[in-house]
Automatic annotation (TrEMBL):
Record organism: Pontibacter burrus
InterPro entries per the UniProt record, alphabetical: Ala_racemase (IPR000821), Ala_racemase_N (IPR001608), PLP-binding_barrel (IPR029066)
Gene3D superfamilies: Alanine racemase
GO molecular function annotations of the record: alanine racemase activity; pyridoxal phosphate binding
UniProt KW keywords: Isomerase, Pyridoxal phosphate
Pfam families: Ala_racemase_N
Domain Alanine racemase N-terminal: 9-225
Necessary cofactors: pyridoxal 5'-phosphate
PANTHER family: ALANINE RACEMASE, LYSINE RACEMASE
One GO CC annotation: cytosol
Domain of life of the organism encoding this protein: Bacteria
Designated name of the protein: Alanine/ornithine racemase family PLP-dependent enzyme
Phylogenetic classification of the source organism: Bacteria, Pseudomonadati, Bacteroidota, Cytophagia, Cytophagales
Amino acid sequence: MAVLKLFRSKLQHNYNHLNEVFKTHGIDWGIVAKLLCGHEKFLKEVLSLGVKEIHDSRVSNLKAIKKLAPDVQTVYIKPAPKKSIPEIIQYADVSFQTELDIIRLLSDEAVRQNKIHKIIIMIEMGDLREGVMGDDLVDFYSKVFELPGINVIGLGANFNCLHGVMPTKDKLVQLSLYKQIIEAKFNKTIPWVSGGTSVTIPLLFTHQLPKGINHFRIGEALFFGLNLFTGETFENMHDDVFELSAEIIELTEKPMLPHGVMAENPSGESFQVDESLYGKTSYRAILDVGLLDVNPKFLVPKDDIKMVGASSDMLVVEIGEHAGNYKVGDTLQFSLRYMGALSILNSKYISKEVE
């Protein structure tokens, strides 16, 4: 069986490093735990770090977090579906919101549950996912701030989530100015300007982050140490908190080219024949993981092997002209990119362990 391992010491190291960076800059932050898909064993590891705030996009995951750590502030990080509103009020202390009608329903439900529900109004800053248009913000806020059971604690924005629009100093200054406009016009205090996700961290190190940005939501940088501007690993951080081990279930020397009448495979792929490979062979290993679990493009092999392709349940890799020390029953290890880890954590077929 394939196994996904989480390395406790590496996760703790990354957390401590980020916590020190944000503390030095006077920034509050929470961990985005949606990657973990509510997996209790891994959630416990994150909670043991000493976190005060966890973000997720699934109410069921927030429910699991509240069960494990009732005092941790939970944040629901997408606009609320109507049917989920009662549970959002019950299990999320804070939510990101962009729709006035939904906020009114949240207000009604918060009153019913005798709670004050905190919201962060998300503003559209160019990536064209969720967000109130900037020109509409003052009118939008005027209809929200007096709703019973609702407390607006922040303005926020997302970058690089849909179209790849990156945060810049100018965009973040603009986000900070929205707060100043709202506070001046309505004589209200908005504690947070939540302009930071993992993609914004490099602006801290290049001194381009405006002082008004005082809240971050961090997932990818914590689990993968990734600088999303350069594609490299941040200095003093680990990029291998997670590791996938997959067992070799067949190892055979085979031709390097398929033969026979060819058509699209079940994934819709058509293969082109490289005539230079006629007559050549190599050892191919089949591993017990497939497209149902993860797209191979999000796997980074630690051995000197070549990814060939995958079907629903099996991954084929090319080992080379010699089998070397490999044999059936051995395991190959892979580092993971974010979307690869997300798929595997959502797969019930992959065992999860803490190392």
